[in-house]
């Protein structure tokens, strides 16, 4: 956690994504989050945001890691789960297929209602889960690939529009806004964007139609002071 505190202090970061939370152990996760949040609060960063990767579509499992005030006893120790939020894998599974016309849209309605019911019990309906469409991992999207793979730009834009308007905190993983089409293993999913020393890998393209349309959506949907979008 000393490394994380360094970046908070020196780079003024506003939050962290905690990787592979299930493999940390619940006590280790809660202690880590408590330490990080305490340090951030000491610097006046009261809105510091910690969200985790709980790679599961099981809401009950995810619930065990969310909430500053949620506690239970583990072998005699009280465990305070420090994550503010977690990635919504169940929505990500459904969203790609619905937007591509391969699954009934009712799946999104069902997910929305599930989010609403669970979030209302916590009083943080806008921050309960971090929503996303694709990311850098192949284990859950090896066959389909990134959202733009074999997908018209209009459908990718619709996906991002949904994320910006639905419940939760939207996360746009790098490359989604550029129409990256990686498919297969992790190396294919993790296409480079910023290596200017090799022209073939300098893929940042502000003129991309998807990129420009997302910018338009963002301008049309101004954020309230308590809202934010994660760019990963």
CATH topology of the largest domain: TIM Barrel
**Which whole number gives the mean pLDDT?**
81
The major sheet is characterized as: 6 strands, parallel
* Tally of strands: 8
What spatial form do the alpha-carbon principal axes imply? globular
Number of helices: 8
Query: In percent terms, what proportion of residues is strand?
Result: 5-15%
Given helix and strand content, the structural type is alpha/beta
Record the SSE blueprint:
Layout: H1 2-11, E1 15-18, H2 26-42, E2 49-52, H3 59-63, E3 71-74, E4 77-80, E5 85-87, H4 89-99, H5 106-120, E6 129-131, H6 153-165, E7 169-172, H7 186-189, H8 209-220, E8 230-231
Parallel strand pairs: 1-2, 2-5, 5-6, 6-7, 7-8
Antiparallel strand pairs: 3-4
Helix pairs in contact: 6-8
Entry keywords:
232 residues; alpha/beta; TIM Barrel; six-stranded parallel sheet; two-stranded antiparallel ribbon; 8 helices; 38% helix; 12% strand; globular
Write up what this structure looks like:
By secondary structure, this protein is α/β, with parallel strands linked by helices. It folds into two domains: 1-86, no CATH class; 88-232, Glycosidases (TIM Barrel, Alpha-Beta Barrel), CATH 3.20.20. The chain has helices at residues 2-11, 26-42, 59-63, 89-99, 106-120, 153-165, 186-189, 209-220, and strands spanning 15-18, 49-52, 71-74, 77-80, 85-87, 129-131, 169-172, 230-231.
